[in-house]
Design brief:
The structure is a homodimer. Chain A has 14 helices and 17 strands. By secondary structure, chain A is α/β, with parallel strands linked by helices. Strand 12 of chain A pairs antiparallel with strand 12 of chain B, so a sheet runs across the interface.
Chain lengths: 415, 415
């Protein structure tokens, strides 16, 4: 019997407790030992829980218990999860987490602490919820140079965009529906501004390339400016708009990493990932494109990934997993202004033809897009060649200085 | 430095040798040690290979070499791979393979031999080529009851069906093209009759449920009877025809397992998997549907999976991986005649209306399908309710006894 403790009995944490109970037999037959959930840390009371005798409000009880070899952290947020995790690892207890914010912010330090203390720090559930992605990326694709990772990493924004694309619902209404269904928080900023997706692409990039990538250094755009007009033009170009977290290894050895809405060709595997589902494409030099698809969030999918990591920790009580990356002061990220992309632009001007001609002068090689019932003041096009993002920003400024409003500028994903 | 040996320098084997050379640094940084390819067993001569000094024609050289801890078997076929693998495992050498035929036929015995001798037997490459599937199924989804596995497991047949669906090419022409492109063997039977897909669904089912499922016990149909008429009717019903390997756990505890062409709704993730690509859906009780997509065959994708397993073996020289299933004499497979499915039928009769009425009498609840330019003698429909396969066979016989030809009968996949 291996004793474990759970910190945080919220959505994911209660799911973990549930799976450890309902899947006891399955887990036993895989591990050959019973996993015993000895303590549950939460400041709230759960008098009706079948595990009510296990609850504690005192972290010290967990740290002091020598029998507890694995601690499951599903508290979320930085504090006190960060301090608690450090103390567990320093004590030689392995830690399993679903806390993407903490891993993206302090992963390198916590992995290093785990290594020093011959413990493990695992976080499969932090990216893609129930989708196996970190272990496959790290273990199964080890014989590949990972050239690119690109994914739909946030279910809430994918739900909103799907409603906009398939049901012609505008952003505000789709967001409200997502909130009503419990997919979006009342303060949806972390989702719709791309911060959640950013944490996840940082974790994926850190794991793939072995160096900690901090979210603050990653160019991040959300989906709040996407309109139904853009959705229509994208369709006319054979694309759907998706929020993509992407990291590409450049020949310079630097990473072209970003989170941004992109026009994704309908032929791409990522184009068919709808609603709250996530999908992650890993492009290896040997495998070619591999795509992982499934529920990126939710109580039981996420909890099942946490429990799988817990089993893995229990199997490796005396051995270390090789999952690792290091902190580095050197710059790993390429200047985003140098990032090459084709772009879709939607302009508004009193003289649309003039605006289009002006755009053609600036970009040279562009293709005009049409949509039904477009107002006369509107013109939309895509560039045929990739341009550095900085050049695109300059062009946008030139257009605006000529009295032409750039209503939308969305990258075209080469996915 | 860890010494390994390679048996079989064919397509996959030469890819393994290539990756071990070209990705030496990447593998070293993951493993912390060098993997040294000490022997390559092949009856042919490769005087131009940069590794020509490593070749041997004598298996005894490998078995006698105490330094060799891991043996990579990419010979394919049962003999002599079976004997060689047994001898390696009995000697305590771990074995890695891409040989689906051998794993499907003798997996339980070889896993048991590995266990007895404290060695590992890994075969990620045997299913899905470069797609990580066995390790995710076994490790990442351990906290799930796997309710169903369904996949496009054979790239050759998927290529043929894609050509039929997208380019209106008939089966014979598509097969010939596949052969010209090197996707199909000159004797294509193993692919087009479903045997290759059958081996793979057997390996997946064995791993998911812990009991060896033998291919000979699995109902297997190929795609040789699929016509362009069927493709058209499928499209009219919002479906594409795919060769599906499927295993569903029934409430009885038995498995409903088969390989058969199926009408797959275009909304299914499996419908969008085209050309030589494979896709495997795993339905877990906690995760819901998870789908893995990528290249299911080919030199480097498959070899990269073999090398990843090799790295895993090298990391676990003193420990056993838990991947395991047992042989069992008890019957695990449900009677295929009891397997429930909706069905699509295409009939040919001198009086098509009469044939449709007769079909309606037999099946009660059916929906007629239309296609352009159908001859007057043709009628096609789908049943609205699931029926046991045995009942469908009886109905087909009744129709044929009435002088109605059942030109096609294809299951409708609930995927």
């Amino acid at each position: 019997m291996i004793s474990v403790a759970l910190m945080g009995h919220g959505v994911v944490g209660s799911g973990v407790a549930e799976i450890l109970t309902t899947h006891k037999q399955k887990l036993f037959s895989s591990l050959g030992e019973e996993i015993y959930l000895k303590h549950i840390l939460d400041l709230r009371d759960f008098p009706d829980s079948p595990l009510c005798d296990r609850f504690t409000k005192d972290f010290e009880e967990i740290i002091a218990d020598r029998e507890v070899r694995v601690v499951i952290e599903t508290m979320g947020g930085i504090n006190p999860a960060y301090e608690f995790t450090k103390r567990c690892l320093k004590d030689g207890k392995s830690v399993v987490t679903s806390n993407k914010e903490l891993v993206a912010r302090h992963g390198a330090e916590l992995l290093s602490l785990a290594k020093e203390n011959n413990a493990n720090y695992l976080f499969e559930a932090s990216v893609g919820g129930g989708i196996p992605i970190l272990r496959p990326l790290h273990q199964c694709l080890v014989a590949n140079e990972v050239q690119e990772i690109a994914g739909i990493l946030n279910g809430t924004t994918n739900f909103i965009l799907t409603k906009m694309i398939n049901e012609n619902m505008n952003f505000e209404d789709a967001l409200k529906l997502a909130q009503d269904l419990g997919y979006a928080e009342r303060n949806p900023e972390a989702d719709v501004e791309g911060h959640d997706a950013c944490r996840k692409i940082c974790i994926l990039a850190s794991l793939a390339y072995g160096k900690h990538i901090y979210p603050d250094n990653v160019h991040t755009e959300g989906i709040t400016k996407i309109t139904l007009e853009d959705v229509e033009y994208a369709a006319a170009y054979g694309c759907v708009i998706k929020l993509i977290g992407k990291c590409k290894l450049l020949e310079t050895g630097l990473m072209d990493i970003m989170v941004a809405p992109m026009l994704v060709p309908c032929t791409s595997q990522l184009a068919n990932i709808n609603d709250v589902f996530n999908g992650i494409m890993v492009r290896g030099d040997c495998t070619g494109d591999v795509v992982f698809y499934g529920k990126g969030a939710g109580k039981l999918p996420t909890a099942s990934a946490v429990v799988a990591d817990t089993v893995d920790c229990c199997k490796h009580l005396k051995a270390r997993k090789y999952l690792y990356w290091t902190d580095t002061s050197e710059n790993c990220i390429a200047d985003h202004n140098e990032s090459l992309t084709k772009i879709y632009l939607r302009l508004e001007a009193s003289d649309a033809e003039n605006a289009y001609n002006k755009a053609q002068e600036i970009f040279t090689d562009i293709t005009r897009l049409e949509r039904a019932d477009a107002p006369e003041s509107e013109v939309a096009f895509v560039t045929e060649k990739e341009l550095p993002y900085g050049k695109i920003l300059e062009a946008v400024e030139t257009l605006e200085q000529s009295g032409i409003k750039v209503a939308s500028a969305i990258r075209i994903g080469n996915l």
